[in-house]
Amino acid sequence: MRRPGRGLGIAALAVLMAGLLMAAGGALVPRLLYRAASYSGSAMAPTYAKGDLVLFRKDPAEVRRGDVVLVTVGAMDGGEDPGGPVVERVVAVGGDTIAYEPGAPRLMLNGRPLDEPYVKDGEPTAGSPGPFSVTVPQAVSYTHL
Predict the structure, then answer these.
(1) Whether the bond into 30 is cis, omega within 30 of 0
(2) What is the pLDDT of residue 97?
(3) What does the alpha-carbon distance between residue 3 and residue 80 come to, in Å, rounded to a whole number?
(4) Which domain holds residue 14?
């Protein structure tokens, strides 16, 4: 003989278990797929301010021009090591040629001025080491550091 209310207890237990699984999945999936980084620079202003928390996919399917990425770089040109990953915007991808001449108002991408509407105060070349021209190898992207 069935006890009254027993089916309700089993249903409540099933709902509780489903809720716990959903909560665990909701906490675990973002940690597996994404990485959070605190932005500490000023080069990405006004898009990101110092202290902003930025989420990045750990394994992006494809990196495109304009994407914001988290990269690890060492000391460059005798400068200081940034001490960990840095946030940068991709300006060129495999096969692109990126160039800069001192005094030029913009970087050149494949022989044309690079349109960067997100650049603050029109300073797309701030921090450039000097004149350069580089063709990005296939399967590689170039960030303007």
Answers:
(1) no
(2) 93
(3) 74
(4) 1-33
Please check whether residues 24 and 61 belong to one and the same domain: no
Q: What is the pTM of this model?
A: 0.61
Q: What is the pLDDT of residue 145?
A: 40
Do residues 3 and 62 both lie within one domain? no
**117 shares a domain with 65:** yes
Vertex 132: Cα angle to 119 and 145 (nearest 5): 40
Q: Kindly provide the residue ranges of all beta strands, DSSP E only, lying in 11-106, ordered along the sequence.
A: 34-38, 53-57, 68-72, 85-93, 97-100
Based on the domain organization, do 24 and 74 belong to the same domain? Answer: no
Q: With DSSP H G I counted as helix, E B as strand and the rest as coil, what are the percentages for the chain, rounded to 5? A: 20, 25, 50
Going across the sheet that includes 112-113, the strands are 112-113, 108-109, 97-100, 132-135
Query: Which residues of the chain fall below pLDDT 50?
Result: 75, 145
The pLDDT assigned to 109 comes to: 92
Please state the domain count of the chain: 2
In a shared domain, residues 119 and 69: yes
